[in-house]
From TrEMBL:
It is a multi-pass membrane protein. It is found in: Membrane. The lineage of its organism: Bacteria, Bacillati, Bacillota, Bacilli, Bacillales. Belongs to the dicarboxylate/amino acid:cation symporter (DAACS) (TC 2.A.23) family. Pfam families: SDF (PF00375). The keyword Transmembrane applies. The keyword rRNA processing does not apply. This is L-cystine uptake protein TcyP. InterPro entries: Na-dicarboxylate_symporter (IPR001991), Na:dicarbo_symporter_sf (IPR036458). Keywords: Amino-acid transport, Membrane, Transmembrane, Transmembrane helix, Transport.
Length: 463
């Protein structure tokens, strides 16, 4: 009987996949298919959740089949992240789109990413204070205890690193290892390696034009090949979102969400305020924030459903370059740096809120100005090297709480609502990197205003 129910559940997913295929054949816009997939995923997930419950074996086995589409799509995106980052940045050098402005561009991007993370820490503390959050309010069950043990084990691996050691970790001692994504700082390491090769190309171009032309031809050919792969994978976005959203909703523990509703609400208020700050930065750059919201909707939606900044990178870069008018060099640097530096949601809001909640249990006044300044400074510094994959927020929390001499195990108290909160955090992370790209392009004069202001209906992330 269980097998029959599993077959029916898989058939329901395939039915909705069929709806999306029909919409594609009728040439319904990509944006409409993405949002339709989101709605269908929520409906299907709610039905599975209410019929079976989150502890059902039928549901768990059905989700394994759903992961063929959902997790499979995310893996395809992750497959092209490192090649895309590497060849896009190297290609920007061959197209001479960086040149003498490289230092200024990188400085502005990093300043925005780190600066907004410091602001995010203040926002997180403010939201926690307004909602009067405290770690004593949270009941610790079996799941929380297990999470605490895991965090304590991981803290032993990362908490003892000094700031110089963290900065050294950014350098690509073995770029081939970093191409595998083996380290939390692998993406930044690949960026640095590509930049070195880019500057080497410029040096060759000054001395031997013919050799430089040969190098450029090879790089441009590889760039065209990688971008073709990116476009093929991006066409699968509606199907990936459908399966991911159905899985997320179906496996959500709504009772736990209700019990921790105060923290969930405080988190989303802080995330909403941070997104508003991103829009303020866009406005101060002399651009229409509503245009940004409309055009950034697809990557933000995918970040929300997938909970993967790294998986969202291809859509992030594609949207910046083909919808928002950001030059390729800036889009790739802001997107790539944003995976491991200055994640506003995971490295900014979340650790700051935890520090505020835990401080009273250690006899610390969380509203002490010195404590707040210390938290903000540590959050900004420790935001270097936070991985843009699942677990990045935990990694950031361990670093911040350890630096403040607060018990890291208490970061596991919110494990039951972690997926729900992580969805919003990831979207804000991606928005932060896109905001850095758009603002930097505007400041350096490399923003195509006509493309930024062009109607969305004339633009697409597809081939």
């Amino acid at each position: 009987m269980d097998i029959l129910f599993i077959i029916l559940n898989v058939a329901a997913l395939l039915l909705f996949v069929g709806v999306l295929i029909i919409m594609q054949k009728k040439h319904i816009s990509f944006s409409k298919r993405v949002f339709t997939a989101l709605g269908l995923g929520i409906v299907l997930g709610l039905a599975l959740n209410f019929i079976y419950g989150v502890t059902s074996e039928v549901l768990n086995e059905s989700i394994e089949w759903y992961n063929l589409i959902g997790s499979g799509y995310v893996k395809l995106l992750q497959m092209i992240v490192m090649p895309l980052v590497f060849i896009s940045i190297l290609g920007a050098f061959t197209k001479l789109k960086i040149g003498k402005n490289f230092g200024k561009m990188a400085a502005i991007i990093l300043s925005i990413l780190i600066g907004t993370t410091a602001i995010a820490a203040v926002v997180g503390i403010g939201s926690a204070a307004i909602f009067d959050l405290n770690s004593d309010q949270i009941v610790q069950g079996d799941a929380e205890s297990a999470r605490a043990e895991y965090i304590e084990g991981r803290s032993a691996e990362v908490a003892d690193k000094t700031l110089p050691q963290q900065l050294l970790d950014l350098l690509p001692a073995n770029p081939f290892l970093d191409f595998t994504g083996a380290r939390s700082t692998s993406t930044i390491a690949v960026v640095i390696f590509a930049a070195f090769l880019g500057f080497a190309y410029l040096a060759v171009a000054r001395k031997d034009v013919e050799v430089a032309a040969t190098i450029k031809t090879g790089i441009d050919a590889i760039y065209a090949l990688i971008m073709s792969v990116v476009k093929i994978v991006l066409r699968l976005t509606p199907y990936g979102i459908l399966a991911i959203m159905a899985r997320t909703v179906a496996t959500s523990d709504f009772a736990a969400i209700y019990n921790l509703g105060k923290f969930v609400l405080a988190s989303y208020v802080a995330l909403a305020v941070m997104f508003a700050i991103h829009l303020l930065i866009i406005t101060l750059s002399g651009l229409n924030p509503f245009t940004y919201v409309k055009k950034a909707a697809e990557p933000l939606l995918f970040a929300f459903t997938s909970r993967s900044s790294a998986g969202t990178l291809p859509i992030n870069i594609n949207t910046q370059t083909n919808k928002l008018g950001v030059s390729e060099g800036i889009a790739n640097f802001s997107g790539s740096f944003g995976l491991s530096i200055g994640q506003n949601g995971c490295a900014g809001i979340y650790p700051a809120m935890l520090a505020f909640m835990i401080a009273p249990s250690q006899g610390i006044n969380p509203l002490d100005p010195l404590f707040i300044l210390t938290v903000v400074a540590i959050v900004a510094i420790s935001s270097f090297g936070v991985a843009g994959v699942g677990g990045g927020a935990t990694f950031a929390a361990i670093l911040v709480l350890s630096a403040l001499n607060l018990p890291v195990a208490l970061a596991g108290l919110l494990v039951s609502v972690e997926p729900l909160i992580d969805m919003g955090r990831t979207a804000v992370n991606v928005s932060g990197s896109m905001t850095a790209g758009v603002a930097t392009a505007k400041i350096t004069g490399e923003l195509d205003k006509d493309m930024y202001n062009a109607p969305l209906e004339t633009q697409t992330v597809e081939a």
